[in-house]
Amino acid sequence: MDMLSAFGPAALFMISMTITPGPNNMMLTASGANYGFRRTMPHLLGIIGGCFVLFASLALGLGVVFERFPLVQTLLRIIGSLYLLYLAWGIATAPPPHFGASEGHPLSFWQAAAFQFANPKAWVMGLTLMASFLPEDGNTVVNALVLAGVAELVGFPCIALWAGFGTAIGRWLKGPRAWRVFNVTMGALTAACVIFILG
């Protein structure tokens, strides 16, 4: 299967994986609501950049380590789960933006990018993408970079929808009580992703 014939199925796979709920999308929704779409953009780009590097690395050898050493998978789940719970707590306890905006800030580009290496969903997505759609013919490095790039081009608008959804919700929330309920709910949903990681 050449690269051109891989694009269509790979794009459909990425749409199904990135538009569905997960740790990144829960955090983007909360960030969009609390900080707005523009301030959430570094978070968005960090996810794209981190996944690009992760996916390409998996195709070029990192995936073999992951598959051959089950302990690495276990450690990844534990580290990812603990970090996700930490982020969920930050979301749940974030002050309402109009009453304490100076106290909080969205994830930076580098924080969001680094999180992808502790995000089991990103690993599973990358391993499946490269195992299923990476062409066997041609230069492996070029194929890996192109496929990872296409995957992130397709994924960006899907995850951006969640940030936009959060931004829209943020405009409807009135008063500190509504914001507290929203932030606690989003924190709980983010923490709930740990169930699927460890399940």
Automatic annotation (TrEMBL):
<feature type="transmembrane region" description="Helical">
    <location>
        <begin position="42"/>
        <end position="62"/>
    </location>
</feature>
<dbReference type="InterPro" id="IPR001123">
    <property type="entry name" value="LeuE-type"/>
</dbReference>
<dbReference type="Pfam" id="PF01810">
    <property type="entry name" value="LysE"/>
</dbReference>
<feature type="transmembrane region" description="Helical">
    <location>
        <begin position="181"/>
        <end position="198"/>
    </location>
</feature>
<keyword id="KW-0812">Transmembrane</keyword>
<keyword id="KW-1133">Transmembrane helix</keyword>
<keyword id="KW-0472">Membrane</keyword>
<keyword id="KW-1003">Cell membrane</keyword>
<dbReference type="GO" id="GO:0033228">
    <property type="term" value="P:cysteine export across plasma membrane"/>
</dbReference>
<protein>
    <submittedName>
        <fullName>Lysine exporter protein (LYSE/YGGA)</fullName>
    </submittedName>
</protein>
<dbReference type="GO" id="GO:0015171">
    <property type="term" value="F:amino acid transmembrane transporter activity"/>
</dbReference>
<dbReference type="GO" id="GO:0005886">
    <property type="term" value="C:plasma membrane"/>
</dbReference>
<feature type="transmembrane region" description="Helical">
    <location>
        <begin position="144"/>
        <end position="169"/>
    </location>
</feature>
<feature type="transmembrane region" description="Helical">
    <location>
        <begin position="74"/>
        <end position="92"/>
    </location>
</feature>
